[in-house]
Design a protein that fits this description.
Elements lengths: L2 H14 L4 E5 L3 H14 L2 E5 L2 H11 L3 E4 L8 H11 L4 E6 L4 H9 L4 E4 L4 H30 L7 E6 L2 E5 L1 H7 L4 H7 L22 H7 L4 E7 L5 E10 L6 E8 L6 H4 L1 H25 L4 E7 L2 E12 L4 E5 L1 H10 L2 E4 L7 E10 L4 E9 L19 E6 L2 E2 L4 E6 L3 E6 L11 E8 L6 E14 L4 E7 L3 H28 L1
Parallel strand pairs: 1-2, 1-3, 3-4, 4-5
Antiparallel strand pairs: 6-7, 6-10, 8-9, 9-10, 11-12, 11-14, 12-13, 13-16, 14-15, 15-16, 17-18, 17-21, 19-20, 20-23, 21-22, 22-23
Helix pairs in contact: 1-6, 3-4
């Protein structure tokens, strides 16, 4: 061992031994004096005894955690003394330093509960190594004892992730913590996670390490305070946990940190919508791929849904390739053509919990009749789930909007229309407009014969703001005649869009 490492070990040993008592038992006064001087440099509390009987009496009074002893001594030898001590305090660490190296003594020492067995005269480096390991073992057992006692007292922590820290370093974790990260012990956890600072992930309004300080430092300064945290588990999934740091009474520098998993409450989006949306997108992608794998393994089909100006184009598809990043589907030429035209789609299957939206089509291969998909997430509904068909009207339609009998004079057009609602695009919002507000609309829709005029009261259902315009969805309840006329218009418009799409197929 280099001088630098030796000095580092001595320094750490002195720090660890600060609150540990040591008893040294030796009948040779010269050896006793030399070892005693070394021990005083390392330990604050050092007791000495000249034989086994005196050693046992000192132990009974002061209960030192660590004992260094000779074996062959008058009145009571070291082995008999150790056996009596172990009956009272089984966790006492006993280091034997003896000139007797016969196997008989070694076996007896093992039976008496030896921690280390060193030959006399012991080399300083050997003794320091033995003391260092013994002191670390004492601290570990104390920490475990405190940890176990805290678990009994804090009944509501039983299902939580628990970490015990001493002087800023984690020393004990519970089984729930190990299960969460799928590791066998704390050493394996730190093998995969060298730093605890990055364990808590960034999320608006949550606790995590920043440039101004680590999450642990913040928690230590506010013991008992509840913090929202985000941690990635062994499945690489984002979990939402409530964290609390609790100081351990009568043990300065020791704290317990608990994490209560509340992911199922779906609260992440309330704090950071952008981060939560990204988390959900990543999670959805993994889940979608899992469901796609089930479909593929069962040689089943999925259905593809695309929209052409409100018209739903639906065809079956089969999976021809599936990996961790992409899905390749084979489908009909007509579906490939609409995909090429509109870029995104929804996918449905009888085993999917909801429809899947694909925002990015990597490639459309007409020769192989395949499409490559990479960006997928769950949505609430698919195109064929619509209760009412929504179609784009002809561009030369007219629409007027009235609020409290005042006409809106800004630019306005119909995005799509159904039998129960209409979506409008406006270049500006009328003053004081709000959801649930009553309005009146007047629509003129071109038909092969006379234009269809519809005038009806409506209620504002939704308002969406974009960079250069606004979308407003209006809900209405038409009169019997208006309902009949609009149904006929939508049927004619649907047929016109089908013919239009068929014509586009030829040119795509």
């Amino acid at each position: 061992m280099s001088v630098e490492k030796h000095n580092e070990k001595l320094k750490e040993l002195k720090n660890l031994a600060e609150d540990i008592c040591v008893l040294y038992v030796e009948d040779n006064s010269g050896l006793r004096q030399n070892i005693q001087q070394l021990l005083h440099k390392l330990f604050t509390n050092v007791f000495v005894a000249e034989d086994g009987l005196e050693g046992y009496q000192v132990f009974s009074q002061y209960k030192p955690k660590l004992i260094i002893t000779d074996i062959n001594m008058p009145k009571m030898n070291g082995l008999d003394m150790a056996k009596k001590i172990k009956v009272e305090e089984p966790n006492t660490k006993i280091i034997y330093i003896t000139a007797y190296s016969e196997k008989e003594y070694l076996f007896q020492a093992i039976e008496a509960g030896v921690y280390r067995y060193l030959p006399k005269p012991a080399k300083v480096n050997q003794l320091i190594d033995a003391l260092y390991e013994a002191v670390k073992s004492v601290h570990y057992e104390e920490s475990k004892h405190l940890f176990d006692n805290q678990l009994k007292d804090i009944f509501n922590y039983q299902n939580n992730l628990l970490l015990m820290f001493k002087n800023g370093k984690p020393v004990i974790v519970n089984q729930r913590f190990l299960d969460f990260f799928s590791v066998e012990n704390i050493e394996e956890f730190f093998h995969h996670n060298p730093s605890l600072e990055s364990m808590l992930k960034e999320h608006q309004g949550f606790l995590y390490t920043t440039e101004t300080g680590t999450w642990f430092e913040t928690a230590v300064q506010n013991p008992g305070k509840l913090y929202h945290t985000k941690i990635i588990d062994h499945n690489n999934e984002n979990r939402h946990l409530i964290m609390k740091l609790r100081e351990i009474p009568e043990k300065q520098g020791s704290v317990i940190v608990s994490f209560d998993d509340v992911t199922e409450l779906n609260l992440l989006g309330l704090y950071d919508k952008d981060s939560a949306a990204n988390d959900k997108a990543q999670q959805d992608k993994k889940t979608v791929l899992k469901f796609m794998k089930i479909v593929n393994e069962n040689h089943a089909e999925v259905k593809l849904h695309n929209f052409y100006r409100g018209l739903t184009i639906t065809n079956p598809a089969v999976i021809v390739l599936l990996d961790d990043e992409r899905v390749i589907l084979k489908t009909s030429y007509s579906q490939l053509k609409i995909v090429k035209l509109v870029k995104n789609m929804t996918i449905s299957s009888e085993i999917f919990p909801s429809a899947v939206l694909c925002k990015l089509v990597q490639e459309v291969d007409f020769d192989k009749q395949t499409i490559h998909l990479t960006n997928m997430q769950f949505i609430q509904r698919s195109g064929n789930d619509r209760q009412n068909t929504r179609l784009e009207p002809e561009e030369n339609h007219k629409i007027s909007l009235f609020l409290e009998e005042k006409k809106f004079f800004g630019e306005i057009k119909i995005i799509d229309i159904s039998i129960v609602s209409v979506k409008l695009e406006l270049n500006a919002l009328p003053p004081a407009i709000a959801v649930d507000q009553e309005v009146n609309i007047s629509m003129v829709l071109p038909t092969p014969g006379a234009p269809l005029n519809i005038n009806t009261p409506a209620k504002i259902y939704r308002i969406d703001e974009y960079k250069r315009h606004f979308h407003i969805v209006l809900i209405y309840n038409l009169s019997e005649l208006a309902h009949k006329n609009l149904m006929e218009y939508l049927a004619q418009r649907q047929m016109a869009l089908i013919r239009e799409f068929k014509a586009l197929e030829i040119n795509l």
